[in-house]
Amino acid sequence: MTPETELARLIELIGPFNKKGVAISESTRFADDLELDSLTVMDLVANIEDEWDINIPLNLLPDLENVGQLADAVAKLKG
Predict the structure, then answer these.
(1) Which of 11, 38, 58, 67 has the highest Cβ tally under 10 A?
(2) Over 9-60, what HEC string results?
(3) Which structural domain range is residue 73 located in?
(4) Alpha carbon distance 15, 1 (integer Å)
(5) How would you classify residue 50: left for phi > 0, otherwise alpha for psi between -120 and 50, otherwise beta?
(6) 53: phi > 0 → left, psi -120 to 50 → alpha, else beta; which?
(7) What's the number of CA atoms in the CB half-sphere (13 Å) around residue 76?
(8) d(CA 42, CA 48)
(9) Nearest Cα to 35, choosing from 53, 52, 19?
(10) What is the value of pTM for the model shown?
(11) d(CA 21, CA 54)
């Protein structure tokens, strides 16, 4: 997958958690824009880990504030 298709897939995975109907882009913030709570974030992380067969370390999550940062982290974890 190219970075663009990975980002598009990531946005698709976030879609069901987007209860406010916010337009999702690389700069969309999880807490401020999407208002995701911790349980919802864990569900999203589980979906992402299943999609790419990776493990996202829990200590990394506080540093991932927006979709672009998450996309970068997924790319790095994939190797």
Answers:
(1) 67
(2) HHHHHHHHHCCCCCCCCCCCECCCCCCCCHHHHHHHHHHHHHHHCCCCCHHH
(3) 3-78
(4) 20
(5) alpha
(6) left
(7) 9
(8) 10
(9) 19
(10) 0.91
(11) 28
Domain total in the chain: 1
Per-residue tokens: 53: 């067969």
In angstroms, the CA 62 to CA 8 distance is 22
pLDDT 10s digits, 58-71: 999 999 999 999 99
Residue 43 belongs to domain with CATH number: 1.10.1200.10
pLDDT tens digit sequence for 23-78: 999 999 999 999 999 999 999 999 999 999 999 999 999 999 999 999 999 999 99
